[in-house]
């Protein structure tokens, strides 16, 4: 198999992007596991496929390194949008993309005719338990919010806030429970959050330190991908969780391991994420299988 691909990254969250407008790739999950392997493949946090859509200008599907399909990816959609714009697949600097989290609207940001980033209308966050989904929090029903709720994971006590940005997130306020961001064992605790029974579809988990009311430090354990340098939907979920807990204003700079994102939870209830999308290289993937 020979397959043309492009490698992109957004804040260090890296992806292999493939144009599959003719829908020729049959086993997408198997391809994701192979091509994302950092030793035997191209190496990436996920495989993103560009597909035709009957509902929007384009369709985006993303597969994690373990072959599972994610509903959405904030860093990935910025890379997808810039690729589509630069290759002339779309003609306008604002267009629509069908995702597993609904139809989202990216806008190419230009300064002096030079692309400086991509702003994405990530839609409205889902805040009630059944829509995230989360279950089994004491005293909480399907239509309740999970905000600053106590939770014990791996023998450690935390306070968590749960949000869906089309995919599930659990935001952990490390400061509230006396944990130090610099020494927190994310690789040990992250997978335990992901597979905890509270989360029937597993969860992405953001571990955060609130620096001030406009600045948050965040690390992430991504469902199906382990620790990554950044997570766009996680940055949006973090902003929403901070506002719900009155820890920040509605516009926040999120400092991640791989860079910085700006997120604003607007008066229209939509989350707007702005950040970089950078092409790394392109090539032909050859697999002898």
Largest sheet: 18 strands, mixed
Helix content: 10-25%
Counting helices, strands and paired strands, the structural category is mainly beta
- Give average pLDDT, whole number: 96
Overall shape: it is globular
Order of helices and strands: EEHEEEHEEEEEEHEEEHEEEE
The parts where pLDDT drops under 50 for at least 5 residues are none
Provide a count of the helices. 4
The number of strands is 18
Q: How much strand content do the residues show? A: 35-45%
Rg, nearest Å: 18 Å
Descriptive notes:
- The protein is mainly β and 289 residues long.
- The chain contains four helices and 18 strands.
- The longest helix has 13 residues, at 74-86.
Chart the SSEs and their pairings.
Layout lengths: L1 E9 L2 E7 L8 H8 L10 E6 L6 E7 L4 E2 L3 H13 L10 E3 L2 E10 L2 E8 L27 E5 L2 E9 L3 E6 L12 H9 L9 E9 L2 E8 L3 E3 L3 H13 L6 E6 L2 E7 L5 E5 L2 E9 L3
Parallel strand pairs: 2-3, 4-6, 11-12, 13-15
Antiparallel strand pairs: 1-2, 1-18, 3-4, 4-5, 6-7, 7-8, 8-17, 9-10, 10-11, 12-13, 13-14, 15-16, 16-17
What's the short version?
The protein contains four helices and 18 strands.
List keywords for this structure.
single chain; 289 residues; mainly beta; 18-stranded mixed beta sheet; 4 helices; 15% helix; 41% strand
